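Thread amino acids onto this structure.
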């Protein structure tokens, strides 16, 4: 993951170094000055040829809104039931407004309407489009005043005057017509409002009358106390009846328990009863009679109420009542629903039958029970108990029915009492609506009468303060702007062209540029020197940049302290300064008591003059035999390696100088070459090999295998980065460490 992030960062690096670009532009200040000098006359000529002058003429109007000739304010209670009070205001003319109001600004927006501009163009026969006419006319309002300024601009001062005055007259004419039309429209609207208000008032009165008749309400304030009083009485009655019902239920339960006990003890006695000989009833007959009465009582209790049917009929009755109030059904439909409900309730009242059952119970009570001894006494007791049960059951039914009637009446009154606020609200809304519509009708009638008088007059809300005059001096000129813009455009084009040339020039120019484009460290920077003889040392002087070589040599030796440390110096092409680097670096090491050997390994060149020859100590001497070169040794023309080494005038420095004819580069990777390098590493503490350019041959790639490190020389303003990176990638395949880039021929402006 980290490697992918690193690759992405490497892919998105900038193709140039901004600091170098700025320094390059500074170096080209002469060209920038020339561009500026050319831009000035171009701007002046453009201003004269393309520039225009505009004249402005202004007319002033005073805005005085039409005051309301029929001021009248009255209130409408349109939604009194909701607690909302609305005010109604009506004027015969335009309502008076101050300068800060939007009315004046609305007038401003009406000056440059399309119809006005069309009429202006037609009257003056102006050869301009509507957009051009609109842009030449401006309308403004002075702050905190009612003054309107209509201005017109034109290259012709006379035309500016005509434009301003004509558009003003057109605006005033249309504005006055609009006011007259507005007054007439308001008159028509008032008539329609008056007719509508009259109809609404009649409708509201009719609705109020129906409401009073439907709910039988004359004074709604008296209905609420009446319902409240009856509800209190019913609550007390219901509570009392509820207690009585509970008491009788308990009595009935106790009597039923006593009858059950008596029946269990009297079973044997009943078997011995004989038929009655006298007028009276046997105990069985009396008990059967009582049982029949009890069954009738149960039937009355079972049929006394049918809750489901009663609830259905009551719901239909209530729906019909509400629909009749709202006018959705006829009165006959309402009466039918009411009759069905009341008939059902009447058919389930059994008070007469209950009285009849009580009489039969008394009759049974007075009858004599026929039987013998204990049997008669027991039957008499059982009869009395059962009669008592019947009495209590009848009283319980009566109480329950009374409780049910009271409960229904209580529910009915409670519902009506709950609906009283709604009725009261509707009552207030209807009365308020009638009152508000009456007030509105009276107000509209008054306004309409006075408005008819106003509509017969002419009206205008503007007065001309001053007419537009012919301007003497131009109000605006664009010549300065055109001159500045033209000069700036010329400068921008020239500077952009120069910047493009600088950016597209991808050649290495500085250390930062090299790091950015090559992505390799720069270990030394050597400025450009016009006099090349100052770069090489001799017996009398040192190199101009000797101190920079010392700075380069120290970390190299510290990193590679072993004896026989070998450095390969190469470049992409010839002429980049690798020989100069090799000589000066060898001299610095030699002065540090190092035994240094410099090898010129360019063995394939034919017309090549080695730059190391001037340092041959025996140069020009006839007594010493001429030394052989590396190519001659590798091709076995020289047997002893001692014949290769040449002593130099530089302290501690020996050289193998290229001599003889060119040989094939394959000899560089022969066993003889490997043996030679092993032998030389034993003799010298530092070996510096100057290899051929990487861009032309593979010799340096072969020689790299004999070195401990590679110093890559790159000259500024010479090669494109892709050529250099290709050579570096080839050297990278040798796996010999590249110490970094040695940058040569750097212009002083790029040297930090």
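Threaded sequence (752 positions):
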């Amino acid at each position: 993951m980290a490697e992918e992030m690193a690759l992405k960062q490497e892919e998105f690096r900038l193709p140039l170094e901004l600091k170098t670009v700025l320094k390059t532009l500074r170096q080209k200040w002469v060209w920038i000055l020339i561009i500026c000098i050319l831009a000035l006359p171009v701007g002046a000529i453009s201003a004269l040829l393309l520039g225009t002058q505009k004249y402005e003429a202004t007319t002033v109007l005073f805005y005085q809104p039409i005051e309301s000739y029929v001021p009248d304010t009255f209130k409408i209670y349109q939604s009194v039931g909701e607690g909302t009070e609305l005010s109604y205001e009506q004027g015969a003319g335009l309502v008076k407004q101050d300068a800060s109001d939007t009315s004046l600004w609305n007038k401003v927006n009406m000056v440059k309407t399309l119809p006005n501009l069309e009429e202006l163009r037609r009257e003056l026969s102006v050869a301009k489009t509507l957009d051009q006419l609109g842009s030449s006319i401006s309308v403004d309002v002075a702050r905190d005043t009612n003054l309107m300024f209509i201005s017109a601009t034109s290259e012709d001062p006379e035309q500016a005057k005509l434009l301003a005055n004509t558009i003003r007259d057109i605006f005033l004419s249309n504005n006055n017509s609009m006011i007259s039309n507005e007054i007439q429209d308001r008159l028509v609207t008032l008539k329609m409002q008056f007719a509508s208000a009259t109809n609404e008032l009649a409708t509201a009165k009719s609705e109020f009358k129906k409401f009073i008749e439907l709910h039988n309400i004359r004074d709604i304030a008296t209905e609420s106390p009446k319902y409240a009083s009856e509800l209190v009485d019913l609550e007390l009655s219901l509570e009392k009846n509820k207690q009585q019902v509970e008491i009788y239920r308990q009595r009935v339960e106790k009597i039923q328990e006593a009858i059950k006990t008596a029946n269990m003890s009297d079973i044997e006695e009943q078997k011995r009863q004989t038929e009655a000989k006298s007028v009276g009833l046997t105990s069985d007959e009396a008990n059967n009679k009582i049982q029949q009465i009890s069954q009738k009582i149960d039937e009355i209790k079972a049929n006394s109420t049918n809750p489901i049917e009663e609830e259905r009929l009551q719901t239909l009755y209530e729906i019909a009542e509400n629909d009749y109030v709202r006018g959705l059904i006829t009165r006959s439909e309402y009466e039918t629903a009411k009759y069905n409900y009341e008939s059902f309730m009447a058919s389930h009242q059994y008070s007469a039958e209950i009285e009849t059952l009580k009489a039969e119970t008394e009759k049974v009570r007075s009858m004599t029970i026929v039987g013998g001894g204990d049997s008669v006494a027991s039957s008499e007791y059982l009869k009395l108990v059962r009669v008592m049960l019947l009495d209590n059951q009848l009283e319980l039914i009566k109480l329950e029915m009374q409780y049910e009637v009271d409960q229904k009446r209580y529910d009915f009154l409670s519902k009506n009492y709950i609906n009283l606020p709604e009725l009261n609200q509707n009552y207030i809304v209807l009365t308020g609506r009638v009152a508000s519509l009456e007030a509105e009708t009276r107000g509209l009638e008054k306004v309409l009468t006075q408005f008819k008088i106003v509509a017969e007059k002419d009206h205008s809300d503007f007065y001309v303060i001053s007419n537009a005059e012919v301007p003497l001096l131009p109000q605006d000129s664009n010549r300065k702007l055109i001159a500045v813009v033209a000069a700036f455009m010329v400068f921008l084009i020239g500077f952009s062209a120069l910047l493009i040339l600088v950016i597209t020039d991808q050649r290495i120019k500085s250390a930062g540029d090299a790091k950015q484009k090559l992505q390799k460290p720069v270990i030394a920077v050597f400025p450009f020197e016009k006099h090349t003889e100052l770069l090489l040392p001799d017996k009398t002087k040192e190199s101009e940049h000797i101190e920079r070589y010392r700075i380069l040599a120290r970390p190299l030796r510290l990193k590679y302290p072993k004896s026989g440390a070998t450095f390969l110096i190469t470049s992409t092409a010839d002429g980049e300064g690798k020989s100069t680097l090799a000589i000066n670096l060898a001299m610095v090491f030699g002065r540090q008591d190092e035994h240094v050997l410099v090898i010129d390994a360019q063995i394939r060149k034919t017309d090549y003059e080695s730059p190391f020859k001037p340092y041959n100590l025996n140069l020009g001497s006839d007594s010493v035999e001429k030394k052989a070169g590396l190519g001659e040794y590798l091709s076995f023309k020289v047997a002893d390696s001692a014949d290769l080494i040449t002593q130099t005038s530089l302290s501690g420095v020996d050289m193998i100088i290229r001599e003889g004819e060119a040989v094939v580069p394959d000899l560089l990777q022969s066993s003889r070459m490997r043996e030679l390098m092993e032998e030389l590493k034993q003799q010298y503490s530092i070996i510096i090999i100057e290899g051929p350019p990487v861009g032309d041959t593979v010799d340096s790639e072969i020689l790299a295998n004999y070195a401990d490190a590679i110093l890559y020389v790159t000259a500024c303003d010479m090669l494109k980065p892709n050529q250099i990176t290709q050579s570096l990638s080839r050297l990278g395949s040798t796996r010999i460490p590249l110490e970094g880039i040695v940058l040569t021929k750097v212009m002083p402006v790029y040297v930090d």
